[in-house]
Amino acid sequence: MAAGNAIRGTRVGSGPMRWAERGEQAPRRSVTYWCANGHATQPAFAAEVTPPILWDCPRCGLPAGQDAQQPPERPRAEPYKSHLAYVKERRTDADGEAILQEALARLRQRRG
Ligand SMILES: [Zn+2]
User: What string of DSSP letters covers 23-66?
Assistant: First the structure.
């Protein structure tokens, strides 16, 4: 009985719930990030949180940094580029067509 009350006592008035219960906002600060395209974004963080070094630009998706003069460079490896996109980059369309015809010719030969 006494132990149960003690546990309940520690829960009330501690932790992040307190802000919501009292209808108050936790202190916030906004940090400005710039991307390589010159977009600025100002996400707000709780005061006790250390803002991340990089932030994704909501307009173009590039990484944005806190230094307006030296925004982070575009990442060289673009993760969403498909294998086909890489192949197309390396070969011209004409090359691709030639390779396709060659492969078809070889197939026909094999069939006799
Ligand atoms: Zn941007």
Answer: T-PPPEEE--EE-TT--EE--EEETTSPPPS-EE-TTT--EEBS
Ligand 1 centroid–CA 16 distance in Å is 33
pTM equals: 0.47
User: How do residues 56-105 score in pLDDT, each as one tens digit?
Assistant: 999 999 999 999 999 998 876 656 667 777 766 766 777 888 888 899 99
What is the whole-number distance in angstroms between the Cα of residue 74 and the centre of ligand 1? 10
Distance between Cα 58 and ligand 1 center (Å): 7
The rounded Å distance from CA 84 to ligand 1 centre is 26
Task: Please state, in angstroms and rounded to a whole number, the distance separating the CA atoms of residues 109 and 100.
Answer: 14
Residue of 43, 37, 33 whose CA lies nearest to 65: 33
The three-state DSSP-derived secondary structure of 65-81 is ECCCCCCCCCCCCCCCC
C-alpha 52 – ligand 1 centre gap (Å): 17
